[in-house]
UniProtKB/TrEMBL annotation:
Classification via Pfam families: DEAD (PF00270), Helicase_C (PF00271)
Region feature Disordered, mapped onto this chain: 384-436
Official protein name in the record: Superfamily II DNA and RNA helicase
PANTHER family: ATP-DEPENDENT RNA HELICASE RHLE, ATP-DEPENDENT RNA HELICASE RHLE-RELATED
Taxonomic classification: Bacteria, Bacillati, Actinomycetota, Actinomycetes, Micromonosporales
Matches recorded under PROSITE patterns: HELICASE_ATP_BIND_1 (PS51192), HELICASE_CTER (PS51194), Q_MOTIF (PS51195)
Boundaries of every Helicase C-terminal domain copy: 237-379
Keyword annotations from UniProtKB, A to Z: ATP-binding, Helicase, Hydrolase, Nucleotide-binding
Residues spanned by motif Q motif: 6-34
Organism field: Micromonospora mirobrigensis
Length: 436
């Protein structure tokens, strides 16, 4: 492993990038950035293992942009590619890299399922040096003749383990076969199971491996609680937790349960909305924006929809339905305590779930604080900030997006990228209001 670097200025990054980092208030590299930048800037293949929220977007994004600077893409022939599993993560990566790409005069396009295929095709044909894509939509555009990957010199696979979980590895393999064979590849993944190790062996050449956290690690700033509740108390306890101050994500096992809980919370006076794969991409974009701005304070989500959600200052995640796998627990928890902030993960456990949850925590390497709670217990409010909701039903009005001018970057979201969406939550002209 090579030496890590103390500052961005010492890396050899393009000066415009260092200046933009300073302008964004980022003065010191996070550990995964300090560890990987010397190798990635030198053009070496990198295998990064880091917990979600550890700063890996800039760990791969800065060298990708720095090494692409000064080059211009021909129409439909990008020079750098970032593959991600979900629409939301594509949106997040594009948003994170946008100011740095702009500082270098590089054009980005986001290629995902959910919105206009034609708009994304136009963005590619206009020339985009950097493409952030989900595998399915990128395949669609290649099949239409709108994109060719032969000039892609830098390829990044972000959250490769999630792509494996969602069944995208055959598509990813076909895409990697099309990029420049002598190009640089960077792969970031929390784990190397599910076929990710085969991708590494086939497509990465003598990769330098950097692991800032073990695959099951969690930050010290994250506190884990298991609340043992009886079935009769759970609905009311859950409503009180959702009514806490601040923003909260509540995880459910299915989209139907998520919808039902959101309706129940709204009827009790909690500003709630459901987020899952059954929502259209414009709906999902609006709901996330409402959550970021505080119009929605309780986001009821499923695992798939919540990958890639990044909301600053989110301090609590609640597992209403405990996950079945340790890595799902870690990914859920990764929505909070990001980049050094503190956060709390609370899991509600019924008596019949105790054994399975205990086993899951052991596999995840988590030693939670366990508490038996009943309605009205001080422990419930002490751990979660639970409080009685107003009881006055609320309706959350969702403004429809205006037709809008064509954005600079195409794209935005969809599991597997079978659709597309715009890459910003810019101001929108309200149309006829409707309830989320």
């Amino acid at each position: 492993m090579t030496m890590t670097i103390p500052s961005f200025a010492a890396t050899g990054l393009e000066p415009a990038l260092v200046a933009e980092l300073t302008a964004q208030g980022i003065n010191e590299p996070f550990p995964i950035q300090a560890a990987t930048l010397p190798d990635s800037l030198a053009g070496r293949d990198v295998l990064g293992r880091g917990r979600t929220g550890s700063g890996k977007t800039l760990a791969f994004g800065l060298p990708l942009l720095s090494r692409t600077a000064g080059r211009r893409a021909r129409p439909g022939r990008p020079l750098a590619l970032v593959l991600v599993p979900t629409r939301e993560l594509a949106q997040q990566v594009t948003t994170a890299l946008a100011p740095y790409a702009k500082a270098l005069g590089l054009r980005c396009a986001t290629v995902v399922g959910g919105l206009s295929l034609q708009r994304q095709a136009d963005a590619l044909r206009a020339g985009a040096e950097v493409v952030v894509a989900t595998p399915g939509r990128l395949h669609d555009l290649i099949n239409r003749g709108d994109a060719r990957l032969g000039e892609v010199a830098i390829t990044v696979l972000d959250e490769a383990d999630q792509m494996a979980d969602m069944g995208f590895l055959p598509q990813v393999t076909k895409l990697l076969e099309q990029v420049a064979p002598d190009g640089q590849r960077m792969l970031f993944s929390a784990t190397l199971d599910g076929g990710v190790d085969r991708l590494v062996r086939r497509f990465l050449s003598n990769p330098v491996s950097h692991s800032v956290d073990p695959g099951t690690a969690t930050v010290t700033a994250m506190t884990h609680h298991v609340l043992h509740v009886d079935a009769a108390d759970k609905p009311a306890a859950l409503t009180q937790i959702a009514a806490r101050e601040g923003r909260t994500i509540l995880f459910m096992g299915t989209k139907h349960r998520a919808d039902r809980l959101a309706r129940q919370l709204l009827s009790k006076g909690v500003r709630a909305a459901a987020l899952h794969g059954g929502k259209s991409q414009p709906q999902r974009t609006r709901i996330l924006e409402q959550f970021r701005t505080g119009q929605v304070t309780a986001l009821v989500a499923t695992d798939v929809a919540a990958r890639g959600i990044h909301v600053d200052g989110l301090d609590m995640v609640v597992n209403v339905d405990p996950p079945t796998e340790a890595k799902d627990y870690l990914h859920r928890g990764g929505r909070t305590a990001r980049a050094g902030e503190s956060g709390t993960v609370v899991t509600l456990v019924l008596p019949e779930q105790r054994r399975d949850v205990s086993r899951l925590m052991s596999v995840a390497g988590i030693k939670p604080q366990s508490t038996q709670v009943r309605l009205g217990d001080a422990a419930l409010s002490r751990v979660t900030g639970a409080r009685e909701p107003s009881g006055v039903p609320v309706t959350i009005v969702a403004p429809q997006p205006a037709p809008a001018a064509r954005p600079r970057t195409a794209g935005g979201g969809g599991e597997g990228g079978r659709s597309a969406h715009r890459t910003s939550g810019r101001s929108r002209r309200p149309r006829r209001p409707r309830t989320v």
